[in-house]
Structures are given as C-alpha cells and as structure tokens.
Write a structure and sequence with these properties.
Blueprint lengths: L4 E6 L7 H14 L4 E6 L1 H4 L6 H17 L8 E4 L5 H10 L4 H5 L2 H9 L6 H4 L1 H10 L5 E3 L5 H18 L7 E3 L33 H9 L16 H13 L2 H12 L5 H28 L1 H30 L5
Parallel strand pairs: 1-2, 2-3, 4-5
Helix pairs in contact: 3-13, 4-8, 4-14, 8-9, 10-13, 11-13
Bound molecules: tryptophan (TRP).
The site of tryptophan has 12 residues, from β1 and α8.
GO molecular function, one term: ligase activity
Pfam families: tRNA-synt_1b
Keywords: Aminoacyl-tRNA synthetase, ATP-binding, Cytoplasm, Ligase, Nucleotide-binding, Protein biosynthesis
Length: 332
C-alpha cells in the first residue's frame, strides 16, 4: 500500500524553543518513516506582517537548519520553501474564487490579528486560510499535523476541498488535522505561567539556540519555594512544572530521586535545578551545534531546499494541471 500523504508548514518567524521541539518537531520526525511527508517553511505566510527583506533568507535557512538538527531527514521527507513552488500561489488564486469574504472575516485567528494590528489588515491576512488550503491540497494531503491553534484552518481547508469537488468534480481528498494524542507534550514555562512560547516571557523559554550559560541562568531562575513541610504533600503547579521538564531530559533515576526527596521533605530545589540545567544542556547542545554548523554551510542548505522543491513540484504540478482542467482551463 502506498503511504498516506502528510503536509505541514513551519513558521519562519522566531527561534525554535523547547515547546516547538516536543510539541511539533519531534512528531514530524516520528512521522517521516511511515508517511509520505511534505514539510515546508511557510515564508509566503510570513509576509503578512512585512518582515524586513534583509532578514528573510536567514530566517528561512535557520528554520531549515534547526529542523534538520532536530531530526528531520531531507532524504526521507520533501523539505522545501513555500515560495519555491509556484503551483501553490496558482492554486491559491483558483481557491480564492471559492472563498467568501464573510467566512474569512469570521475566522478567530483573523479577528485576533485585526485586534492586535488594526493598521495592517491586508488581504493576505484575510486569505491566510486559503493559502494554507493551497499548501495542503496541492499534494492532496490526508493528514495535517498541527497544534490546536491551527485545527480550525485545517477544517476550512476541508470545506474548501468539498466546495471545489462539489462544483468541479471529485479531485481533492478531505484533509484532517493529525492529532498526536498522548504524544502532544505541553512544555511548561519556567516562570510558572502557562507554556513556553516565543512571544511571552523570553527568560522563561529555552530556545534551541541558547548557549550553555543562558540555559543555566534561565533554569536557576525557575520559580520554586522553600520546599514542602509535610510528607507527601501536593505539589504546587510551578513545582510540577520543574518536574515535568526534568522528566523530558533527565534519567528515570534522577526523576525518582528528586520525587522521593520531595515526598520526604528533604528536597533542595537549588540542587534539582542544577541537575536539570546540566541535563538540559546535554540535550540541547548537540542540536544547537548541529544547527549552527549547518547554517554556516549555505551551500548545503541551498541543495536541500532545491531537492525538496523538486520533489514537491513533481506532485504539485500534477495537481495543478488537474485543477485547471476541472475548472475548464484546458485550451490547447
Ligand atoms: N499556519 C501555520 C502556523 O502558523 C503554518 C502553516 C502554513 C501550515 N501552511 C500550512 C501548517 C499548511 C499546516 C499546513 O503554524
């Protein structure tokens, strides 16, 4: 049986952090053997916020390097830049004729962006879900691994696929969000508030590019207290968070030792954080060094992107000719 088709876009803004790693990247890596994966850097999407032209290339190359350092294998997946696939904007244009202003204006992510940036409500922002639909349908994907915040966009892609099929005949399979279930790990922030994020407290978020000292400093500042006074007492959430991080990067023996110390009221959070920092460094440093090395080898990244685009265009060109034909653009 042929493998199911998977598509996902990776944002090209901001640096990858531990939450991205355990939330998304690690799951991409797990999928690459069992599915036919198309993963791309969503550079067109990033233009909605008008990034400085001189930053664009470095952003895209960095994201590619970080994803490969995190375990994505460009031999196994098609890893490409969205802007290298001209069939995507072509399908986007065709799909825009089936997308209605009213429904696009109702999308919660659009409304959020209007609220946050009332001076930049451009048409690209409004049609963001249509471009995302084109990204997915161009490969006739069935599965779209995304976080909760993107599930509604995948639902819209499903609607647009149905609408196209209904009007022009069956062409697109209906895509569904791929939920990692138990594998979807929330990585808590170091300040005890919510999860790690690139937009909130930067000192409470560990980035894959952080150097050893920065990691140490951030972890030593994690919120703790003077420790429990009663045996086996319940853990406050911020302490649970430190344990959660320990479970991600430390050995089971280490976790067990500190859990026992907590339950027996002998825990010293300073020691626990020191241990967490060293284990975190052992985990992050190789990824960081590999990403840095790759970023310095522009030729290597260029080659990866070129080969990725070739693979992606093979499937994209097939789909776009079918879509044109279905619509009646079939003149010669
Ligand atoms: N919008 C997604 C995000 O912000 C990125 C993205 C763009 C995407 N196109 C996609 C994800 C297609 C899945 C499929 O994270």
């Amino acid at each position: 049986m042929s493998k199911q088709i998977v598509v996902s876009g990776i944002r090209s803004t901001g640096y990858l952090h531990l939450g991205n790693y355990f939330g998304a990247m690690r799951n991409y890596v797990k999928m690459q053997d069992d599915y036919n994966c198309f993963f791309f850097v969503a550079d067109y999407h990033s233009l909605t916020t008008h990034p400085d032209p001189k930053d664009l290339k470095a952003n895209v190359f960095r994201v590619v390097a970080e994803n490969i350092a995190g375990g994505l294998d460009p031999e196994k997946v098609a890893l490409y830049a969205q802007s290298d696939i001209p069939e995507i904007p072509e399908l986007y244009l065709l799909l825009n004729m089936l997308a209605y202003k009213g429904e696009l204006e109702k999308v919660p992510t659009f409304k959020d962006k209007v609220r946050l940036n009332p001076d930049n409500v451009n048409a690209g922002l409004l049609t963001y879900p249509v471009l995302m639909t084109a990204d997915i349908l161009i490969h006739k994907a069935l599965l779209v691994p995304v976080g909760k915040d993107q599930e509604q966009h995948v639902e819209m892609a499903r609607n647009f696929a149905q609408r196209f099929n209904h009007r022009y005949g069956e062409l697109f399979p209906e895509p569904h969000p791929f939920n990692f279930g138990d594998n979807l790990i929330k990585v808590p922030s170091l300040d005890g508030n919510g999860k790690m994020s690139k937009s909130e407290n930067l000192n409470a978020t560990i980035f894959l590019s952080d150097d050893d000292d920065t990691i140490r400093k951030k972890i030593m500042k994690a919120k703790t207290d003077s420790g429990p006074t009663e045996a086996n007492s319940e853990m406050p959430e911020y302490i649970q968070n430190v344990f959660l991080l320990l479970k991600l990067v430390s050995s089971t023996e280490t976790v067990a030792a500190f859990t026992d110390a907590y339950n027996g009221c002998t825990i010293r959070y300073g020691d626990m954080k020191k241990q967490l920092a060293e284990d975190m460094i052992r985990f992050i440093a190789p990824i960081r060094e590999k990403a840095l090395g790759l970023q310095q080898d522009e030729a290597a990244i260029r080659k990866i992107l070129k080969e990725g685009a070739e693979k992606a265009r093979e499937s994209a060109s097939r789909t776009i000719s079918e879509a044109r034909k279905a619509i009646g653009i079939n003149y010669y």
